[in-house]
Design goal:
alpha/beta, globular, two-stranded parallel sheet, Transcription Regulator spoIIAA, about 130 residues, 4 helices, 6-stranded mixed β-sheet
Length: about 130
């Protein structure tokens, strides 16, 4: 049911038509591009929902934010749901201040994100972001 893919420091796991992408400890240009590439790969493979897990992420710089906006745009353009999980309080405040939380939901942890996505998928007529 779940498969794990390891790309240069970006891990991902598929659960049905959902994918979890694990961000590293520092979201900058290099790691952000790897995350974006993996998210786009998952979307192109037919993924209908993405979770980006920030459990190990301690810092996000401005280029990392810019790349996350690209991921949000890619998910919206394919009609896929996107949730950020396991985000530390400092990063939550940054995401709120910069307006990312208007475009993406936050979940306490990966399990809550998956449960939310499953619940959304079971709602008749629910589609898009």
């Amino acid at each position: 049911m779940a498969e794990i893919t390891a790309g240069s420091t970006v891990r991902s796991r598929s659960v049905g038509d959902m994918a979890i992408v694990y961000a590293g400890d520092y979201l900058n240009k290099l790691s952000g591009e790897r995350i974006e590439r993996e998210c786009r790969r998952q979307l192109e493979a037919g993924c209908r929902a993405l979770v980006i897990n920030f459990r190990e992420t301690e810092l996000v710089n401005s280029i990392g934010i810019s790349i996350l906006l690209g991921v949000i745009d890619a998910a919206e353009s394919t009609g896929a749901q996107l949730i950020f999980s396991d985000v530390n309080q400092q990063t939550v405040q940054l995401f709120e201040m910069l307006g990312l939380t208007r475009h993406v939901a936050l979940a306490r942890d990966e399990q809550e994100a998956l449960a939310t996505l499953r619940e959304f998928a079971s709602v008749p007529g629910a589609a898009g972001h």
